[in-house]
C-alpha cells in the first residue's frame, strides 16, 4: 500500500504496532458510535481490528506531521457495485482533531489516489443521517447526494439505521481539481 502525504498529514498502511495509537482515539465514546461501531475497550481489541478489518483492505492510519501522533483512519473498500472500478471511502478521526479540516484534507488525497493512481470511475460514501460532521466533510469534498437507504446498516448496538449515500465520478473530481 502506498504512503500518501498532504501538507499536514501522513497516511500509511496500518501495522499491528499502531494498536495503542488507534486505541487512544477509538476508545472515545463520541468517535465510534457516530460511525456505528463501539468504542474500543483495549489496545488488544484495536490490534485485532487492525489485523482483521484494516489490513485486508486499503486502510491508512492518519498521522499528524507536527507530532507524529496517530489521529485517524481512512480507507477504501468494496462498495455497492462490487467491481474493480469503484470503491467506498470511510473514515474516523480523533475528537480533539475535529473542526480543523484534517479529514477533508485526508479525504481529498485519498480521492486523488483513487482516481489518478487506481483509475477508479466512482468513489462512494455513506453516513448516518445524524452524523453532521461527516456530512460536512462530504460536502467540502464535493460528493453528490444520491439518496437515503432506509434501515440499511445495523450498528454495534443492534439498532438498524438509515444511510445517506453520496458519490463522486472521476469527471467530477477533475472538475473540482482533485484529479489533474
TrEMBL record:
Gene Ontology terms, MF aspect: protein-N-terminal-alanine acetyltransferase activity
Gene Ontology, cellular component aspect: cytoplasm
Q: Please state every residue range assigned to the domain named N-acetyltransferase.
A: 9-171
Could you confirm whether the keyword Acyltransferase appears in this record?
Answer: yes
Pfam families on file:
Acetyltransf_3
On whether Transport is a keyword of this UniProt record, the answer is: no
- Classification via InterPro entries: Acyl_CoA_acyltransferase, GNAT_dom, N-acetyltransferase
Q: Which PROSITE patterns match?
A: GNAT
Q: Which UniProt keywords apply?
A: Acyltransferase, Transferase
Similarity field:
Belongs to the acetyltransferase family. RimJ subfamily.
This chain belongs to the protein called N-acetyltransferase domain-containing protein
Amino acid at each position: 500500500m502506498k504512503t500518501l502525504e498532504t501538507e499536514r498529514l501522513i497516511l500509511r498502511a496500518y501495522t499491528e504496532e499502531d494498536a495503542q495509537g488507534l486505541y487512544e482515539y477509538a476508545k472515545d465514546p463520541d468517535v465510534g458510535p457516530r460511525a456505528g461501531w463501539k468504542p474500543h475497550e483495549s489496545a488488544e481489541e484495536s490490534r485485532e481490528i487492525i489485523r482483521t478489518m484494516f489490513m485486508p483492505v486499503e486502510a491508512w492510519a492518519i498521522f499528524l506531521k507536527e507530532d507524529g501522533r496517530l489521529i485517524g483512519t481512512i480507507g477504501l473498500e468494496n462498495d455497492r457495485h462490487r467491481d474493480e472500478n469503484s470503491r467506498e471511502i470511510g473514515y474516523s478521526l480523533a475528537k480533539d482533531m475535529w473542526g480543523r479540516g484534517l479529514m477533508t484534507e485526508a479525504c481529498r488525497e485519498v480521492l486523488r489516489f483513487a482516481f489518478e493512481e487506481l483509475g477508479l470511475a466512482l468513489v462512494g460514501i455513506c453516513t448516518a443521517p445524524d452524523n453532521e460532521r461527516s456530512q460536512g466533510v462530504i460536502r467540502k469534498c464535493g460528493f453528490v447526494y444520491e439518496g437515503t437507504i432506509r434501515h440499511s446498516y445495523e450498528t454495534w448496538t443492534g439498532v438498524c439505521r438509515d444511510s445517506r449515500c453520496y458519490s463522486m465520478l472521476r469527471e467530477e473530481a477533475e472538475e473540482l481539481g482533485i484529479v489533474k
